[in-house]
Write a structure and sequence with these properties.
The chain is of the alpha+beta class. It has two domains: 46-228 and 500-622, no CATH class; 263-487, no CATH class. Helix content is 41%, strand content 24%. It contains twelve helices and 18 strands. Strands 4, 5, 8, 10, 11, 12, 13 and 14 form an eight-stranded antiparallel beta sheet that branches. Helix 1 (20-119) packs across helix 5 (245-255). The chain is elongated and about 145 Å long. Mean pLDDT is 78; it is low at 415-425 and 457-491.
Length: 641
């Protein structure tokens, strides 16, 4: 059944509608593209900034690692130098001991000629001759032959080894600076983004650091470390004050000596010695008045007596600075030499005295006392009468308290044309020490200088004591030239202390901008930042959609700060690295505890980097500061009367 179509259009079926969403898509597509481009550029900027910072951190840390290895290498070499120097002292000590052993025969025969032989009508002489020959003379000659050769060749070998150690660490020290300068390019390229490089600010800091780290001794300004050469001169007073590098090195070597080298010896005493006797009597009363003590009244006296006798052997080796007799002039590290002394003597001490005190009702009326002492080669009488006291003679007088039985001396390191004069230098100073004067203290050489008669000639012609009092080094008196040459050991086997590398003690050079700190500046140019992974410039929106980038000085920049620091481990339970005295150890090149680390940059570092590395406008900065202060002044102008 057909029905007619309606004539009214409102009742027609709706047409299909398409394309309305395209308008919105087109409107927002551009926004999405710009946003994606912006996000990409922001992410790339962040990524490149992080890579630039990583490159700066890696460069600063790598440079500090190289320098830490340099100072640790110097520490190992210096420890080897110290060990070899102590070994030289041991060898010189063995040679001195050999001469000392042989001298027993000389002294025993001298005593037989002076005392024992006349007392026994000559019966003891053949017995003493046989005893001294087989017990001391023949073995002593054998000891001298072997140990003197060992001292000569051993000293030469060890001294040359020390010179090689010194040259090695000095060369490594200079090479380390070249490595620091050369490491930047590779480290920055491997850790940084495309085109990353050292900035002008970083180059400036590198130059400052290299100058202040110190490799060559002639560099001006402050230095953190330095290579010391034994040819550099310094006044005698500076050496005596211990302020020169070689004086400090010599002090460390002395403290590192083993017991044989530092102080060898023994003591033998008869049973019951020393004898000490003290008698004290208290003849005082303390009366009472009405049951109350009114005070001590009476006298107290005391008598003392002391006597000691012993056979003592003292000896030791010393690394000493050979100072001219006038005590003036400039010296170097080559003026140090090793010498050793040994002496055996019969030592005695005798002293006695009394004291008398008087009291009246608790108050001391007076004190009278005196003491006579003969010991340590001094005779002195001290007295006290009431408030007065003194000594007779003032300061005492020389009085020998030892009878020598053996003496030996040996040294290495004397050079020059006047060998005889210089060779006697150490011996003459040893003689002054025995008398209580001169640059050698009596405590040196293991207190061998206390045996004064072993170092003094009786000065009487015909007395069979050894010439110059040094029995250990005598040969037949008919050949004094040979005797002196043989006595004082090798003249060319030891040339003093070698070159070495050490720290100066300056904690911060150039106000913290030099060693031990290093500030590294790394930049990436804007042109390299705009390149893609292929190295070609990236395509970016153009026209109205162009993204305008404003990088400071048209580059990405970052800075990092490294530090070279010394730290001895103290947080290990095993305590293998702890100091025995518990003290905190300062940075030095004798213990290999140098480390590298990154530290936070200071506000001053960052401001300086902005001004130099990113080339901020100083004029604009000055104008801004002027406007700021003008505005600040106007704010307070109303409060000014």
């Amino acid at each position: 059944m057909d029905s007619p179509l309606p004539l009214d259009g409102a009742t027609r079926p709706p047409r299909r509608q398409r394309g309305q969403a395209v308008i919105y898509v087109y409107l927002f597509l551009a926004v999405l593209v710009i946003s994606a481009s912006f996000l990409y550029k922001a992410g790339k900027l962040t990524s490149d900034k992080m890579q630039v910072q990583n490159a700066a951190d890696a460069a600063a840390y790598s440079a500090m690692v190289i320098e830490a290895r340099d100072l640790n290498f110097a520490a190992y070499m210096n420890r080897a130098i110290v060990a070899n120097e102590v070994a030289i002292g041991q060898l010189v000590g063995l040679a001195s001991w050999a001469y000392h052993w042989r001298s027993f025969g000389d002294f025993l025969m001298a005593y037989d000629t002076l005392f024992i032989g006349p007392a026994t009508l000559g019966v003891s002489t053949p017995i003493m001759q046989s005893l001294t020959k087989f017990a001391f003379t023949l073995p002593g000659k054998a000891f001298i032959t072997v140990l003197k050769a060992l001292a000569d060749y051993g000293t030469t070998t060890l001294h040359n080894a020390n010179k090689m150690y010194g040259w090695a660490q000095y060369a490594y020290h200079i090479t380390s600076l070249l490595n620091v300068a050369g490491v930047f390019d590779g480290v920055i390229r491997q850790n940084g983004p495309t085109g990353a490089k050292l900035s002008d600010y970083g180059l400036f800091n590198l130059i400052v650091h290299m100058a202040s780290y110190g490799a060559l001794p002639a560099l001006p300004g402050e230095r953190f470390s330095e290579g010391y050469l034994p040819t550099k001169k310094a006044p005698v007073a500076d050496y005596q004050a211990g302020t020169t590098p070689y004086a400090r090195l010599a002090g460390l070597i002395r403290e590192s000596r083993d017991p044989f080298t530092k102080a060898r010896g023994w003591e033998l005493r008869p049973p019951g010695f020393p004898l000490d006797l003290t008698v004290r009597q208290d003849w005082t009363v303390n009366p009472k008045v009405l049951g109350v003590h009114v005070g001590r009244t009476g006298i107290v006296w005391e008598i003392r007596f002391h006597f000691d006798i012993s056979l003592e052997r003292k000896g030791g080796s010393e690394l000493r600075l050979v100072i001219p007799f006038n005590g003036k002039g400039d010296l170097t590290g080559a003026n140090f030499n090793w010498s050793s002394a040994d002496a055996t003597s019969m030592m005695f001490e005798l002293s006695g005295g009394f004291d008398l005190w008087a009291y009246l009702l608790g108050a001391m009326l007076g004190h009278i006392g005196a003491n006579v002492s003969v010991q340590n080669d001094r005779f002195i009488i001290t007295y006290k009468i009431g408030p007065f006291s003194g000594s007779i003679p003032p300061g005492g007088m020389y009085f020998p308290t030892n009878y020598p039985f053996g003496a030996g001396f040996y040294q290495a390191g004397i050079k020059g044309s006047k060998k005889t004069e210089k060779a006697n230098l150490e011996y003459k100073q040893m003689l002054l020490a025995a008398l209580g004067g001169g640059p050698i203290e009596r405590e040196h050489y293991g207190q061998a200088a206390e045996h004064s008669l072993a170092w003094m000639s009786p000065g009487v012609e015909g007395v069979p004591f050894p010439p110059l009092g040094v029995a250990a080094s005598t040969l037949p008196p008919s050949d004094p030239k040979h005797r002196i040459k043989d006595k004082f050991g090798p003249f060319n086997s030891y040339g003093g202390l070698p070159s070495f590398v050490g720290v100066t003690g300056t904690e911060q050079t150039y106000d913290g901008y030099g060693a031990p700190f290093l500030i590294v500046g790394v930049v990436q140019d804007e042109g390299d930042y705009d390149k893609g992974a292929s190295g070609q410039p990236e395509r970016e929106p153009a026209g109205r959609f162009t993204l305008t980038e404003r990088l400071a000085d048209r580059e990405i920049a970052a800075i990092a700060k490294g530090e070279l620091h010394f730290k001895r481990p103290t947080d290990i339970k095993a305590k293998y690295f702890w100091r025995a005295d518990g003290d905190t150890e300062l940075g030095n090149t004798f213990n290999p505890y140098w480390q590298a680390r990154l530290v936070e940059t200071s506000y001053a570092d960052r401001v300086l980097a902005l001004l130099i590395q990113q080339k901020q406008d100083f004029a604009q900065l000055g104008t801004s500061l002027q406007l700021f202060f003008n505005g600040l002044a106007s704010c307070f102008s109303g409060f000014v009367p």
